[in-house]
Amino acid sequence: MGKRLKEEARLKIVKEALAGVKVGVLSRMYDIHPETIRGWIRDHRDSIPPEDIPVADEHLQELQRLQDVEQRYEKAMKVLGEKELELEILRELLKKNPPAYPKNSK
After folding, report:
1. The pLDDT of residue 21 is above 60
2. Are 77 and 69 in contact (CB under 8 A)?
3. d(CA 20, CA 41)
4. Taken in order 90, 92, 97, 101, is the CA torsion positive or negative?
5. What angle do CA 56, 60, 63 make, to 5 degrees?
6. What number of other Cβ atoms are within 10 A of residue 100's Cβ?
7. What is d(CA 98, CA 106) in angstroms, rounded to the nearest whole number?
8. From the CA atom positions of the chain, what is the Rg in Å?
9. pLDDT at 57
């Protein structure tokens, strides 16, 4: 890949980030470390005119939809993890012998 092509690809990713796509999504999508992308953003954000930042075209809409899906997935996995933990605690409690209650002495 030529230097010019690499620079164009970097600028494309920076523009997508400036348009609102999260760095984590871009990182997974392009298989590039998030800190690398953040560095590109720092290096290029001042040199990109606002009119060059893409507005909601189909590609960006799809990336934003992917972000929403990932956020919902993370929330669902957190809830599922909490429920799994609760079930494990209840299973452990069921395995234990019932507590010995003192007999009522009169």
Report:
1. yes
2. no
3. 12
4. negative
5. 140
6. 6
7. 24
8. 25
9. 67
Task: Report the predicted TM-score, pTM, of the whole model to 2 decimal places.
Answer: 0.52
- Name the band, by pLDDT with cuts 50, 70 and 90, for residue 42: very high
Q: ∠ CA 50-56-62 to the nearest 5 degrees?
A: 135
Cβ-in-10-Å burial (0-12, 13-18, 19+) of 27 comes to middle
Task: Count the residues in the chain.
Answer: 106
Residue tagged 């929403």 (tokens): 68
Largest CA distance in the chain: 94
Query: In angstroms, what CA-CA distances link 40 with 33, 36, 86, 105?
Result: 11, 6, 44, 78
